[in-house]
Amino acid sequence: MDALLLSLLLGLSHGIEPDHVATARLLKSKRKIVEFALSHSAGFLIIAIPIVIFIGSNRIFEFIADIIGIIFSILLLIEVILDKEFDIGANKAGLLQGAFVITPTKVLVIVLASTDYNLIYSAEIILAFILASIFSISALAILNLIPKRIYKFVDGIIAIVTITYLISLLVIN
Hints:
Number of strands: 0
Oligomer: single chain
Strand content: under 5%
Number of helices: 8
């Protein structure tokens, strides 16, 4: 599977996580929901690009990033199996949450963007994640849809595909 497509799927999955939908639904107005989605994504962009440049320009860090990606993919799978969400870091809405809350989906996107590093393609991977996140946060909240269990199914599939993808990269390199 292509890293760009995988990043889109990760973004859709990230956006439908219950904490994002709940936060967006609390905001009540469509404008505030979209502002939340945009600021949340901007926060991730601010932190992701420098990390990707740092990791991607060094083969040893790229290898370590792939290992970390596999670990976080397993963590994502454990979330699905145990029906428990792991967030590491600050727990504020918007820009701070986007920048400082570390979730498996965010780590996986950074790993994907760092692998076979090319600044333009890496930026496309991050932007695909961000656009899919903005879309899913905004659409689900604006349409008043609260996913019950679908995000767990999506996360499980994404975790398995990502583990397979990253292991294949390690074997090929």
